[in-house]
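PT: before anyone asks, these are the final sequences, not the draft ones from last week. 650 residues across everything. Please model them as a single complex and drop the result in this thread when it's through.
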Amino acid sequence: MEKEGFWGLQWQSTGAKLPPELNSGPAVSDQLPQCFLHLNWKQPMAHDADFESALSSLVSSPCSNPPASADGSGIGELIGRLGGICNSNDISPSSRYRSADASCYGTPLNSPPKLNLSVMDHRHQGRGGPPMPVNRVPGPHLGPLSAEPGFEDGAARLSCFAGRSSGSFAGQFGFLEPGNLSEASRSESPKAGFGSCVGVGQSRSERPAHLETEMRSKIGGSSTAEESELGNGPVESSLSHRMTAEASSLRGIADNKSGKWKTAAKRKGREAPLSSSATNPPANMTEEENSDAKRCKSADRNGGAKNAAVKPKTEQNGDPGHREGMDNDHKPPEPPKDYIHVRARRGQATDAHSLAERVRREKISKRMKFLQDLVPGCNKVTGKAVMLDEIINYVQSLQRQVEFLSMKLTTLNPQMDVSMENFLPKDMYQSRGLMPQPVYPAEIGTVLSYAHQPQTIALQSVMTSGLEEQFSLNSLQSSLRQSQSMQHATTDAYTDAPSQLGGLWEDDLQSVAQTGFGQNHGQTHTSHMKIEL
Amino acid sequence: MAAEMGLARSSRHWSRALRRRLLLLRRGTASDGCGCQNEALTSSKEGGDLGVGANEEEAVEVEARVRALQRLVPGGEELGTERLFEETADYIEALQVQVSAMRTLACLLDELREKRG
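LR: through. Structure below.
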């Protein structure tokens, strides 16, 4: 159908390589996550049965095949894929994941089932941004876990997306294999773990150090701000368990360096398990420096923000060269909880205001990226202004389409049994701008039909149809024929600037509603309309 | 309008704003008119924060577009930039679904008409 072509959206349905691997653990319904995974999975997965291989390939793939844009989008790819992995495993053993979920899905917790339904629709229609459907699926499971007040209001998708993008890869990983992670947490955390960035999921002993470092450097760039948005109450303990020694030592170093902690306004902290045991401080330092070097090379956004785990906002960046605190081997005492810990980037100001601003900017740019995915043909566009232009144009075009289609459906599908008072717009012309436009066609059709005096009976039916427009997905109505002139008139009216009609029509329509289409009023309206048109 | 009613069903902020608007339309409340008065003051505050290193002109441009988007998205005037983007994304999705559903319906009805002759 043309609708698919119109937006140019396509499902990247690769083969079935991915789901079997990811679903190897818990039994998961293939269908739902499969599509999402495919959508996000641009590179074929290695045929490894176990999850770690999947993760490794996930980690290495962005390195090998970075998207055209900057690292941020690579991160976005990672995010999408991780979200896919997350969801693939998440659906059935949700109960197990509850403790680990909170960080990942702060908001979708409150997303209603309707969202899931629409997600299903999207899936079927081959539409939708990468992270959205993924986020919505586990929504019901995660409902009670949301702790972030700011996101409870239905910003499910984006906050989920944001949450995932933030170092809550940790949360995701823990999410994916809660059993393993808990074991790992209990056991001695392996050396050279993922450290600060991910911490949680990376405590698996099998994970090669280099991959972890790589991952960390990639993920490090992910917005630290996102972490702040995740409700992490229940996650903290598990995170603290899962943190590797390196992460804790790193953080400890940074903390010691700063000497004090600044608490952000929002209080969520994903807790860095600074208290976890340290195994290899020297090795940690090495990893740290490696990641640090990698970080330096990366773009500014992804530069030094290597703090997936909780990191207090500090003033530690007074000395960028020593940000990681090379000379500290021991960990600091248990960091305070309930803080949003953001590590300032290398060479950036570290006061609370600029940090908060940076967090905000990163959030906003993440959402812009998401919108970019949603709006077709925006991938090449760079720059906020142009991007916003595209978004605005797209929204306007969608609204116009809805308007046009509603008119078309009106002509195809008039209604006889309408209660006029319900549908007549009495005060529809507000100074809001474009939004009332979709309302116009119905009114236009109504009034124009009313204007054609000779056809009183037909007018009434047409009017009801114009007004009624019982457009619901489930209802199909019988159709009446509208006069050709009627259709032409509506077309003409459609092309008029609605705002021009606004002021005049309000009173007319009100009187129409009140009188029930008396002839006198009709003539009056006709005259008005003739002037207008 | 019926299409709008279809859109107004979700529990998102823009959807609630749309419902409010439709209810006002239905009831013909005369007091409406000023619905968009609460221009988001936060947006003005956020104007300078939008761009990383954006110079003055760019920031002004971006801000203008954000305001335009606010007018487009129902209930957008009250939202800050961040929330506005979230609502925009959801709104775009809903519009896409709406358009596709309506298109399907229109095609179906066309076919029915043709069959009926």
